[in-house]
Structure formats: C-alpha cells, structure tokens
C-alpha cells in the first residue's frame, strides 16, 4: 500500500513540475495543478496521521469541482462559470467542509447530514458527468485537430477515473490498493503525453525553457510562423472558402462542418485545419456565428423597419432565441439595444 501510494505521488509530482514549468502562465494549467494537488491529498489521506485527515478530506472533496472547472476552461467553446453548475460545483465541497465539524458525515445528525453530506455527494456525481458532457458536446465543432484527438481523450480518461474514485469513496466499495493503482495509471498516461511535448494536448503550446524572449513575444513569433506556413499550404483552398462565404453560404440553415467540407470538396480534417490555421478560429460554430452576426448587425442599422426575426431567419438562425444568444455573446448587446444605439449615433452625426 505504502509503496504504491509513494509511486503514485511520484507520478503526480513529476507531472505537477512539468505543467508548472511549461504551462504555468495559463489559467487552465493552474486549475490542472490544483487538480493534481487535490489528487495528492487523496493519496495521502489513507497513510497520514488521523489528526490530519480532516484537512486532506476537505481538499480531496474538491476533485469533482476542479475536474468540472478544467473541462470548462479547456474544452468549452465559451466557458460559463457563473451558472447553476458553477454553484453546484462550489456546493459539492464547501458545504461538507463547513459542516464536517458539526458531524455532517454521521447519518444520525439528521438535516445536517442530509444537506451537508448526502446532497453534496449527489452534486459531485452531477458535476463530473456535466464535465464529461462538456467534452462530448463540443467535440464535433472543435477545429483544433490535436485537441480533438488528445485533449478530449485525456479529459474522458481523467473523468472516468474521477467518477470511479468518487463513487468508491462515497459507497465504501473499494480496495486500499485499487484506488492508488487507478491514480497511477491515469497519471502515467497523462504524464507520458505531456513529456512527449505534444502540441495542444491539454494546455496549449508550451514555452521552450531555453527561450530568451518573454512569453508574449514567443507566442507572437510562433503564431506568425504557423500563419505564414498555413497561408502557403492552404492558399487555393482559402480562396475557395472565402468566395463561398462571400456568396452567403454561411446563411445555410443547420450548417455543419460536414456540409461545408462537401461544398468545398475537402476532407473534414483539412477543412478544420483550413479554418483554424488561416483564420484563427478554434470552433466551427464561432466562425459561422461571426459571419452571420456581422451581416445581421449591418442590416439592423441599414434596415430599421425590418423585424429582427426576419433578419435572424435570413442569416441562418432557426429561432429568435438562438439569434439573440449568439448576438449578445459576440457584440455584448441585444439586437434591439444594438439597433437603437447605432441609429442614435447615426442621428447625432446627421445633427
């Protein structure tokens, strides 16, 4: 038991140092480091002195919430933290920590046990499953091929392990050797991918240790190099794509990457690379929404008498609610407020 726990902690420590060194400037990396720290608390919980187990128990209870946060930052198209799911993630570890001194983990404590222990347990399951759903739901529209193949797989592996560990701890059906073994396997898989230096696996581009430039300059140089190479490779395809979009193909209802690939006669993976590497978009829906909302914004001002619903349908949205949501995400205003403010600006210029 001690040997396996020590091995697992060693794997976690190696990965912690790699991520901190190469990706420490990224918010998603800091969340991943917190996840590793909570994993260490889980491993230590069974071997440290009993008087310290309250501390490690409170820390490892954060694992489901941290996994959910990692999925949001690493894989969601637009991370949404301040939602009911964010509140549920906080509830899953804050209430147990606050009510543990009151005996919340004792079934005889009545309401305190129910609200401070039982419900947070269900919340842990919910946030882990929602985190895994975030990975799956954003898979098809992701334009970053390395992230599609590797980051999603990593998060699913970690998610299944987190769910397994959570169920085992809450039900008591586990072996003292089983859980450290699970952590060891998952940590080795993730660490091996990071050690290989695969670009964009989980945290994005790493910054070479030997680099003498600051992070900002390095990122700009890498982006410029990739963009220059991409423009040469995808020059003819890029012209074809721009021509198609200039003709209004983005207005097609229920437009998918598959339909676009067929139209420009390219495999899906090449279409993803074309949009990502030449235009900089990381999500297909974001690319299409930008084009649609740009036209909608122009028409809202140029056609003040045209109903907003008509414009929404014309640019490719099936419902007014989906149009309003996309419009507000991109321009930070509702279509009505945008039209009013722009018309007022035009009027003031005329006066």
TrEMBL record:
Pfam families attached to this UniProt entry: HTH_18
Keyword Cell membrane among record annotations: no
Amino-acid biosynthesis recorded as keyword: no
Gene3D superfamilies xrefs: Homeodomain-like (1.10.10.60)
Domain HTH araC/xylS-type: 239-341
Superkingdom as given in the UniProt entry: Bacteria
GO molecular function: DNA-binding transcription factor activity; sequence-specific DNA binding
SMART domains, per database record: HTH_ARAC
Coiled-coil residues: none
Entry keyword set: DNA-binding, Membrane, Transcription, Transcription regulation, Transmembrane, Transmembrane helix
Positions of transmembrane segments: 6-24, 31-49, 55-75, 82-99, 119-138, 150-167, 173-195
Protein known as: Helix-turn-helix domain-containing protein
